[in-house]
Design brief:
By secondary structure, the chain is mostly helical. Helix content is 80%, strand content 0%. It has four helices and no strands. Helix 1 packs antiparallel against helix 4, helix 2 runs antiparallel to helix 3 and helix 3 runs antiparallel to helix 4. The chain is elongated, with a radius of gyration of 19 Å. It starts with a helix and ends with a helix.
Length: 146
């Protein structure tokens, strides 16, 4: 896969992540700190967290087709890296109540759910692309064989 294609895929994943992270922040915020008000800088956090979520995918990319075992290991490693980076941010930021176990657990579980949901959405995109390519190939083969 060319760098341009990888970049386009990373951007698609990035915007999927921004959407899911915004929803997660809404849910966790309403559940644990619903009365708090924020300034406009809060709109940066989904963008930053999504960038963190895309970084491991860019660096752990493989040109070769991976076996199912290696793909699972790669995905687990990506999730672990994302969890670790976000947990470092959680424990170093004063604005996140990291002293509450329920908040930390919610964030960790939310990251895992978002990771899985992103993989599902990406799979649906790739499935629709492969169907379109197969239909185009079938039309081409029919036109050539006539």
């Amino acid at each position: 896969m060319k760098f341009r294609d990888r970049l386009i895929e990373a951007m698609r994943i990035y915007f999927i992540l921004v959407t899911f992270i915004t929803i997660l922040l809404l849910i966790i915020g309403l559940a644990f700190d619903g009365d708090r008000t924020f300034g406009y800088e809060v709109f940066l956090s989904p963008l930053i967290y999504a960038a963190i979520g895309v970084l491991p995918a860019l660096f752990l990319y493989s040109e070769k087709e991976l076996s199912m075992t290696r793909l699972i290991i790669k995905n687990i490693l990506q999730l672990a890296i994302i969890e670790a980076i976000v947990m470092v941010l959680v424990f170093t930021k004063d604005t996140i109540p990291s002293e509450k176990k329920s908040v930390v657990i919610s964030i960790a579980v939310g990251i895992a759910v978002i990771y899985v949901l992103t993989m599902v959405v990406e799979y649906i995109f790739e499935l629709s692309q492969s169907k379109a390519m197969n239909e185009s190939l079938e039309k081409y083969q029919k036109s050539v064989s006539k």
